[in-house]
C-alpha cells in the first residue's frame, strides 16, 4: 500500500517536472517570437525614418511648409491722377471685401439668407457659390463694398460660427469729382484694372506691382508675422486738364442739353499754342464710381470717337488754303445774287440771298455759293492737299483710346460734286478734336500741334518717369496767312456777321459756326429736320489763350450754329477768362467778331 503511494508520488513529480520543462520551452519560444516581432518592428520604423529623413525629406518639407506657411497677396494702391493744379481727379479709398470659408460653413441657406439683403446678391447665387466651393478654404463673396454695407455685415459677424466669413481690406478706385471729367478718366473694374479712358491707356503705369509673400501662421490660421512690406504702389499722373475749366465746360453743356433738348453735346478746350487739352466733356455722361449704372451711350467719348460732317466751319479751312495759294485776295468780288449754284446736276443754295460779296464777306456771311466759287478757284487737288495738311483723314495722335481718323476720300475718288460739297463741309467726316486742332493752326500762326492730355508721369517716390511737351507736327500755312484768317474770322461777331451771339464782353474772339444736316443712311439723303450745330473759335483773337469747339447734336427748335452753339461758346469763354483772370482789352481797340455757318 505504502509502496503504491510512493510510486504515484514519484510519477506525479516526474509529470510536474515534464510540465515545467514544457512551460519553459513554450516561454522561450514566445520570447523568441516577441523579440523577433519587436526587432522587425524597429527595423520597419528605422527603414521608414531613413526613407522620410533622406529620400522624402524635400517633399515632406514642402508639405509641412504648406501647413504653417501661406502665400499672402498684397494689393497695391493704384496711382493717383491729378489735374494740372494737383487736384485729385482719381484716387483710392480703403474698403472691406467679404470672403467665406466654404469648408467651415455648416448651413449655407442660413448664411445666404442673412447676408443677401446687405450685399444685394440673391440668396440662390450665394448658396450656389458656397456649395460649388464646398471643401475649399476661401472664396470671394463681395468685393470692395460700400462703407454702410461693411458696417452692417460686421454687426452680423458675431452670429456666424467662427471662421465662416471674414473681411479683407482692399483699395478701391474713387473719383472724388463724380461725373466731372468721366470721359477723360474712364474707370477701373473690381480688380483695379483700367477699362476705359486714361485708366485704360495708362493702366501699366497706374496699376502698381502685385506682391505675394510667405507668411507663417499658427494652427488656427492666424498670421505670426506682421512686418510684411507693402506692395509697390502705382505711378501717379498729372493731366493738362484744369478741373475748374472742366467744371465750367460741363456746366454749360448740361445747360444747352436741357435748353435745346439735344441728343448729345461735346465741348473741347485746348491751348492752341502748346496742344494741351484744358477741358474735354460730353453729354450725356456717367459717374465712374458706378459705371455699371450707365449704358454705352452715356459712356461714349464723342469728342474723340464720333465722326460728324462739319458744315460751314469747314469754310475757314478752304479760305486758309485759298489765301496761302494766292487763289484769292481779300478784295476779290463774288456774285452770289442768284442765291444758288448748280454743280454737276446738283444745286447748292444759300440760306439768305446776298448780292455781290468780297472774299472776306463770303466767310463773314457764310455764303455757300461764294464758298463753292472759292473752291473752284483753288481746285480739288490743292484743296485735298491742304485738308490733309490740316490733319483731316488722320488721327491727331492724342494719348487717348478709340480715336477715329475721320473720313476724307482720296481726290482721285471724288465725284463731279465733291469739290463743291467739301467747300461747304459735306462729304467729309471728322471728330470734334480734329476740327479744334485745325482751328488751332490759324490761332497759333500756322503750325499743326499734336494734342495731349497727360503732362507727366511720376513714380511713387516723386521721380519723373515720362514727360509730354508741345510737339509740332508740321507747318500748314504761313504766319501771314494765319493772321489774315484771324482778321477775317474776327468780323463774324460784329453787326452783319452770322454769330453775334458769340460776342464776348471785353475781348475779341474769332471763329466760325456750322449747321450741318445729318445724312440719313436709310434714305440716302440729308435729313430735313436733324442737324448738328457747332461753333469753333479762339480768344483773345490776336493773342489766343484758348481754342474751343462746341458741337450740339440734334437740337430741337432752332438749329443754326450761331443760335445754338455760339452762345455756349460765349458763356464758356467769359467764365474762363474770369477764372484765369485774363484782363479785358481796351474798349477803343475792341471789335466783336466770329463767323457762323448755316
Report low-confidence residues grouped into runs of 5 or more. Answer: 223-228, 587-598
C-alpha-based Rg, rounded: 41 Å
Strand content: 15-25%
CATH fold title of the largest domain: Beta-lactamase
CATH class of the largest domain: Alpha Beta
Rounded mean pLDDT score: 84
- End-to-end distance, in Å? 160 Å
Number of domains: 3
The best one-word shape is elongated
Count of DSSP H/I helices:
20
CATH superfamily of the largest domain: DD-peptidase/beta-lactamase superfamily
Largest sheet composition: 7 strands, mixed
Gist of the model:
The chain is 37% helix and 21% strand.
Topology diagram in text:
Blueprint: H1 2-55, H2 57-68, E1 69-74, E2 81-82, E3 88-100, H3 108-119, H4 123-132, E4 139-142, H5 147-156, E5 165-174, H6 182-185, E6 187-188, E7 194-196, H7 197-201, H8 203-206, E8 211-216, E9 236-239, H9 243-260, E10 264-270, E11 277-283, H10 296-299, H11 302-305, H12 315-324, E12 333-335, E13 340-343, E14 346-349, E15 356-358, H13 359-364, H14 368-378, H15 380-389, H16 418-423, H17 432-444, E16 447-449, E17 454-458, E18 464-467, E19 472-475, H18 479-490, E20 510-520, E21 525-539, E22 546-553, H19 561-564, H20 566-580
Parallel strand pairs: 2-9
Antiparallel strand pairs: 1-8, 2-3, 3-4, 3-5, 6-7, 9-17, 10-11, 10-22, 12-15, 13-14, 16-19, 17-18, 20-21, 21-22
Helix pairs in contact: 3-4, 3-5, 9-20, 12-14, 12-15, 12-18, 17-18
Amino acid at each position: 500500500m505504502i509502496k503504491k503511494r510512493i510510486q504515484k508520488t514519484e510519477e506525479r513529480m516526474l509529470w510536474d517536472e515534464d510540465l515545467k520543462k514544457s512551460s519553459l520551452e513554450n516561454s522561450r519560444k514566445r520570447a523568441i517570437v516577441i523579440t523577433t516581432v519587436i526587432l522587425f518592428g524597429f527595423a520597419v520604423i528605422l527603414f521608414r525614418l531613413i526613407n522620410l529623413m533622406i529620400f522624402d525629406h524635400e517633399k515632406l518639407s514642402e508639405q509641412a511648409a504648406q501647413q504653417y506657411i501661406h502665400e499672402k497677396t498684397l494689393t497695391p494702391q493704384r496711382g493717383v491722377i491729378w489735374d494740372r493744379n494737383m487736384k485729385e481727379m482719381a484716387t483710392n479709398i480703403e474698403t472691406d471685401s467679404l470672403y467665406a470659408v466654404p469648408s467651415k460653413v455648416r448651413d449655407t441657406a442660413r448664411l445666404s439668407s442673412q447676408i443677401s439683403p446687405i450685399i444685394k446678391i440673391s440668396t440662390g447665387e450665394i448658396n450656389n457659390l458656397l456649395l460649388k466651393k464646398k471643401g475649399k478654404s476661401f472664396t470671394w463673396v463681395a468685393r470692395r463694398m460700400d462703407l454702410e454695407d461693411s458696417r452692417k455685415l460686421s454687426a452680423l459677424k458675431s452670429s456666424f460660427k467662427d471662421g465662416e466669413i471674414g473681411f479683407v481690406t482692399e483699395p478701391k478706385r474713387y473719383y472724388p469729382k463724380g461725373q466731372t471729367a468721366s470721359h477723360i478718366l474712364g474707370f477701373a473694374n473690381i480688380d483695379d484694372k483700367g477699362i476705359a479712358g486714361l485708366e485704360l491707356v495708362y493702366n501699366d503705369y497706374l496699376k502698381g506691382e502685385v506682391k505675394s509673400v510667405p507668411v507663417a501662421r499658427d494652427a488656427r490660421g492666424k498670421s505670426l508675422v506682421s512686418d510684411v512690406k507693402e506692395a509697390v504702389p502705382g505711378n501717379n499722373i498729372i493731366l493738362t486738364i484744369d478741373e475748374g475749366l472742366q467744371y465750367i465746360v460741363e456746366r454749360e453743356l448740361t445747360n444747352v442739353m436741357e435748353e435745346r433738348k439735344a441728343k448729345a453735346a461735346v465741348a473741347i478746350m485746348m491751348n492752341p499754342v502748346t496742344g494741351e487739352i484744358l477741358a474735354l466733356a460730353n453729354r450725356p455722361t456717367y459717374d465712374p464710381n458706378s459705371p455699371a449704372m450707365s449704358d454705352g451711350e452715356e459712356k461714349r467719348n464723342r469728342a474723340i470717337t464720333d465722326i460728324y460732317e462739319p458744315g460751314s466751319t469747314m469754310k475757314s479751312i478752304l479760305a486758309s488754303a485759298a489765301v496761302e495759294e494766292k487763289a484769292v485776295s481779300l478784295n476779290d468780288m463774288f456774285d452770289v445774287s442768284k442765291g444758288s449754284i448748280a454743280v454737276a446736276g446738283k444745286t447748292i443754295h444759300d440760306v439768305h440771298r446776298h448780292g455781290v460779296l468780297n472774299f472776306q464777306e463770303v466767310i463773314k456771311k457764310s455764303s455757300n455759293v461764294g464758298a463753292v466759287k472759292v473752291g473752284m478757284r483753288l481746285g480739288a487737288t490743292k484743296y485735298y492737299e491742304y485738308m490733309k495738311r490740316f490733319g483731316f483723314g488722320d488721327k491727331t495722335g492724342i494719348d487717348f483710346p478709340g480715336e477715329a481718323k475721320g473720313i476724307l476720300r482720296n481726290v482721285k475718288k471724288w465725284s463731279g460734286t465733291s469739290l463743291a460739297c467739301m467747300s461747304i463741309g459735306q462729304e467729309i467726316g471728322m471728330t470734334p478734336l480734329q476740327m479744334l486742332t485745325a482751328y488751332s493752326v490759324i490761332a497759333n500762326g500756322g503750325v499743326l500741334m499734336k494734342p495731349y492730355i497727360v503732362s507727366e508721369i511720376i513714380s511713387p517716390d516723386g521721380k519723373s518717369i515720362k514727360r509730354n511737351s508741345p510737339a509740332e507736327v508740321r507747318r500748314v500755312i504761313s504766319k501771314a496767312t494765319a493772321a489774315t484768317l484771324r482778321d477775317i474770322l474776327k468780323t463774324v461777331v460784329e453787326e452783319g456777321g452770322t454769330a453775334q451771339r458769340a460776342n464776348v464782353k471785353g475781348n475779341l474772339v474769332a471763329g466760325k459756326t456750322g449747321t450741318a444736316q445729318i445724312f440719313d443712311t436709310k434714305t440716302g439723303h440729308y435729313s430735313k429736320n436733324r442737324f448738328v450745330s457747332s461753333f469753333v473759335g479762339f480768344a483773345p483773337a490776336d493773342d489766343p489763350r484758348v481754342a474751343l469747339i462746341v458741337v450740339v447734336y440734334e437740337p430741337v427748335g432752332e438749329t443754326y450754329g450761331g443760335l445754338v452753339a455760339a452762345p455756349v461758346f460765349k458763356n464758356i469763354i467769359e467764365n474762363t477768362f474770369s477764372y484765369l483772370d485774363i484782363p479785358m482789352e481796351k474798349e477803343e481797340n475792341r471789335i466783336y467778331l466770329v463767323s457762323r455757318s448755316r
